Amino acid sequence: MTTELSLTVKVDVPVGVAQAFQMFTADMNTWYRGGPYGWNDPERAVAIVLEPGVGGRWLELWDSETGEGFEIGRVLTWEPGVRLVLSHRMLVTPHLVTEVRVDFRALAAERTRVILQHSGWNLAGEGVGGSSIAMAIRGWGATAKNLQITTRTKTEEGQSMTSTSQGETPTIFPALRYKSGKEALDWFKAVGFDEWLVVHSSEGRLIHGEVKFGAGTVNIGEIGVAEGHEAVDEAGFGISVYVEDVDAHYLGAKASGLEIVQMPYDTDFGARMYGLKDPAGNLWVFGNYRPGL
Questions:
Q1: Which of 53, 13, 62 minimizes the C-alpha distance to 194?
Q2: Residues 42-59: pLDDT tens digits?
Q3: Which of the following CATH numbers is that of domain 172-287: 3.90.400.10, 3.60.21.10, 3.40.50.20, 3.10.180.10?
């Protein structure tokens, strides 16, 4: 049976719901993340356009003069300050039409929680959904962060942001596994962490989660759910380290005679990684996915 995957990203922005909706829609091009996980065709993409109202096109623009581009999707629901629903597809899987739902919840007069849920990969068939959601996780995670930074910058300076740099980016993150993903998320929320990115199966089990406290991020997951996590599941705790070239790093560790407990593999949440243990038996996972970004 094909497992339904649902990706949820939450981010708080320092503006009211009406302005948050405006930023997400009309000003999308100021914060939408480009690059290999944002654009369908990074070589040709020049802008992102979302036409207002039900039926409006969501377009990756390739030529600003002719209007040529790739239609990512259409507006299905348009409720300013409340909700936006879009159909979504990728150039690599144009037959797979998924759904992006964005809710805007007022936390205060000038503070809004933007909750984005991307679902429908179960329609892809075996093998395709996993690669698509992997790209979406990388894309939406960084894109949501850009939305937060851009909104904050426009609020503080009264102008559009030209850079999303915040200094040196963290590269080391704790990784925890739990019997119950729901209980884990509830615990983290109780002690002041915010959900940043959550991927659930249709049964509600936690495939991958990231919770944030200030500038710090913790990776969490449910034991026995995500394929390829046997080493982390056994230990219950590990440390994730970001590296650019996973395979080169693995070969270096192997040549040094270190204890490899997990060969390099591609995950279903958008990363390539491998695991090894240090002299005290602690688990270390080196991969090319950076949580919380």
A1: 13
A2: 889 999 999 999 999 999
A3: 3.10.180.10
